Amino acid sequence: MEGPHPGPAPPSPPAPAVAATLQDVARLAGVSAKTVARALNGEPNVRDATRERVARAAAALRFRPNRLARELRQGARTGAVGLVIGGLENPFYSHLAAGVERALRAEDLELVIASTDDDPERERAVVQTMLERRVRALLVVPVAEDHRYLEGERSAGTPLVFVDRPPTGLAADVVLWDNRTGVRQAVDALVAAGHRRIAVIADRIANFTARERLAAFREAARAHGLGLEPRLLVVDVHDVPAARATALRLLAAPEPPTAFFGLNNRITVGVVAALLTTGGAQAVVGFDDFDLAEALGTTVVANDPAAMGGRAGRLALARLAAGPGLPEQVLLPATLVRRGSGERGPAAAAPSRAAAALA
């Protein structure tokens, strides 16, 4: 007895798409690869009929010239500018990159972005990769502690612009915030509201921005005659969960602070989260604006990372146009924006709820 006949074999899956090459276009157009390259590059001495045939073949094959490879073969730098940033999850960097990109767009330059994840050991490898791509200029938000490794590149004429933090051991252009003025405005506002016990939470102390803002707080606090309790000055807090845990611990103390000052956007988000958990009425001021800060009524020392990126991009473009010169330092404003949370007066903490949340 015959068994059932097998049905027709299923169709073979389509072959994976492979990007067309210059040689593929040449075969379809019936010309040499060299003629294809000359036609697509708009070079003279190619007949109109041949140029049209090549264009039709390229369109049929969806061929796209490798601009990067062509530029490197010609020994030139690419049409790209590199930007090395910290963690991609931080909205500050996305706004910064948008500002750089808008500045470069006017000059038909592309932006290539790489992240160090705020790891000092990774910075040098990421920068080296950018330079191997022969970027025309390099913008860096630095995390390493020594930038002398870039001295050769600077001497060779590659524009280097450091953003948000200065380099160490290297004379180069830098775009910074006026951190000291911003911190002073925040402390003045909290003291005017009646606060004497202010908790300050800062990022990793190896970070220039954290060090400068903390030093500015100490200076402003001394000017107001505030006591600086060591337990209220907390450093090396790098992300939102750590900031929330730190704020909860401070709120659960026998004498909790009456106000918090978060020295970057992620820290302030963590502090706000802790207060929402405990129902605490402590005042809050943050350095750097963040999404939903306005909706939450959070007072901040606001800056504009897109403006910082744009200024850094224009500085790199100026170096490309005019060549090297004396290093320039640009200081951008940071201004207190009052939204309510920083204007609250001293409030009784709720240690029981804070202790429960901490547990």
UniProtKB/TrEMBL annotation:
One Pfam short name: LacI
Every copy of the HTH lacI-type domain together lies at: 20-74
Q: Write one Gene Ontology MF term.
A: transcription cis-regulatory region binding
The record's section on CDD domains has: PBP1_LacI_sugar_binding-like
Gene3D superfamilies, per the entry: 3.40.50.2300, lambda repressor-like DNA-binding domains
Entry annotated with the keyword Transcription regulation: yes
What keywords are annotated for this sequence in UniProt? DNA-binding, Transcription, Transcription regulation
Which InterPro entries does this chain map to? HTH_LacI, LacI/GalR-like_sensor, Lambda_DNA-bd_dom_sf, Peripla_BP_I
Q: What is this protein called?
A: LacI family transcriptional regulator
Naturally occurring in which organism (per UniProt): Vallicoccus soli
